[in-house]
Design brief:
By secondary structure, the chain is an alpha/beta fold. It folds into two domains: 23-72; 77-290, Alpha-Beta Barrel (TIM Barrel), CATH 3.20.20. The protein is built from eight helices and twelve strands. It has helices at 24-49, 51-72, 107-112, 138-147, 164-174, 196-214, 224-231, 284-290, and strands spanning 77-80, 85-88, 94-98, 114-115, 118-129, 133-134, 151-157, 185-187, 219-223, 240-243, 259-266, 275-280. Helix 5 (164-174) packs parallel to helix 6 (196-214). The longest helix has 26 residues, at 24-49. Residues 2-11, 21-31 and 62-72 have low confidence and may be disordered.
Length: 293
């Protein structure tokens, strides 16, 4: 068909979506945030890796520790540097207890050690355990400690499965208790699989026999929890020596106990291993009053 005869084609306008223009300003802003974050992270890493940062933190810890040591602690519970432990300041008579674990002891050095008014005035020495065991260092310690001027007492580690009376006989075969000694001690720390009632019966037999033979009332040594669980109000006629560590005060009425083992980490001149440290509830006159007559 000739061009002049063609009908013009009417085209409908096509609606087009407007082109989404990317805002250069937004893009620029996004790059700015990302870069700022990277800079912040890099800065933090530099701080964390810096020895000056750790020095600052350590300095803070040291300052806090010094404050606690000098001002924040209980004023009646002070650290004694030479003994390397805290010691309750309320008590004036102090002592230790030893066994084969401490090895060969230089007792004159023990006696000479002193910081302020704290020094070793007494020592409890392990002698026996159960029915057969004799501490290999007992005889040496029992001989040398008094020579150095330290008041001594001997103790037996009690085994509730064994006869209490038989253990008492064994203990007295090894230990010769004399005038000027501290009373003998029975160390009870475990049930050894027997009932509390059986333990108390055997322990009572031990105590009765030793008192009958020596005319001296023995001391009972035990931990605070063991005492509260099994012995409280049961054998209160006997003097108590209680273990309760790292506390400014023993959680037991003072009239109920004579000795308090308050630390097991003391360092003592003349002894190559850490030692248990004890306080006596009275003064030196009261301690003298406990000695065998």
């Amino acid at each position: 068909m000739p061009p002049e005869k063609r009908k013009p084609v009417v085209r409908k306008p096509v609606a087009r979506k407007p082109a989404q223009s990317k805002s250069p300003q937004r893009k620029k802003k996004g790059k700015s945030i990302s870069l700022g974050l990277k800079v912040a992270i890099a800065g933090m890493l530099l701080i964390l890796l810096s020895p000056f940062y750790y020095g600052y933190i350590l300095n803070g810890f040291v300052s806090t520790w010094r404050w606690v040591r000098d001002w924040g602690q209980d004023p009646n519970y002070r650290t004694y540097e030479s003994f390397n432990i805290k010691i309750p300041k309320k008590y004036s008579v102090h002592g230790i207890d030893v066994s084969y674990y401490q090895g060969k002891i230089n007792w004159p050095l023990v006696k000479e050690m002193k910081e302020d008014e704290v020094k070793i005035r007494f020592a409890f020495i392990k002698a026996t355990e159960g029915l057969l065991q004799v501490d290999p260092y007992f005889q040496r310690n029992w001989r040398e400690a008094p020579k150095a001027g330290i008041v001594c007492g001997a103790y037996h580690f009690f085994r509730p499965k064994k006869s209490g009376k038989a253990q008492a006989k064994f203990f007295l075969q090894v230990v010769n208790i004399e005038k000027g000694d501290l009373p003998p001690v029975v160390d009870i720390e475990t049930l050894d699989g027997v009932s509390p009632l059986r333990m108390r019966l055997e322990l009572s037999d031990f105590l009765t026999y030793v008192e009958m033979k020596t005319k001296v009332r023995p001391i009972i040594y035990t931990g605070l929890k063991f005492y509260e669980d099994y012995l409280e109000d049961k054998l209160d006629n006997y003097p108590l020596w209680i273990a309760h560590y790292y506390q400014p005060k023993l959680r037991l009425a003072e009239g109920k106990w004579k000795f308090w083992q308050h630390s097991d980490k003391a360092k003592i001149n003349g002894i190559g291993h850490v030692v248990d440290f004890n306080a006596f509830s009275g003064d030196s006159t009261a301690l003298a009053g406990m000695l065998v007559k």
